[in-house]
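User: I'll paste a sequence; please echo it back and then give the predicted structure.

Assistant: Echoing your sequence first, then the prediction.
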Amino acid sequence: MKRRLGEACGTNSAKRVIVDAAAKSDNLMMALELRPICEHCAVELPPSSPNAMICSFECTFCRACVERLQNVCPNCGGGFCDRPIRPSRNWTSDNDLSHHPAVTARLHRPVDFGVHREFALALAAIPALQR
C-alpha cells in the first residue's frame, strides 16, 4: 500500500517521499526530513546538530533564530521543539541515518522580522502548546 504524505507547511514545492508500507511488513515507515540548514539564516544544521529546532510541520530553524521568532513559526504559527537526533548506528530494524538519510534540499526563506513581529504579537498570549 502506498501513501503520499502531506506537504511541509509554507512550502508548495516541498514534497514528501512516497512510502511503500508493504515493504516494511505493513508498517507505515516515515522519518523526519532532517533539513540541512536554518530556513532564515542558512546556518548548517547537520543531522547530529543539537542546535536544530522544528515545528510540527518540520519547518527548521536554529536556536538563535527561534529566539528571534519568539517561538512562533512564521509559516504556521506553531511553537518549536528540539529536532531529535537520528541514530547514526543501526541499533535495530534499520532505523538509522544510513537507512533514512537527511534530505539534501536547502530551503532558505529569510523571515521579514517586521512582518513577523506583528504576527508573533497576535499569538503572544496563546501558549505554544495551545495554538
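The mean pLDDT is 84. The chain has two helices and five strands.
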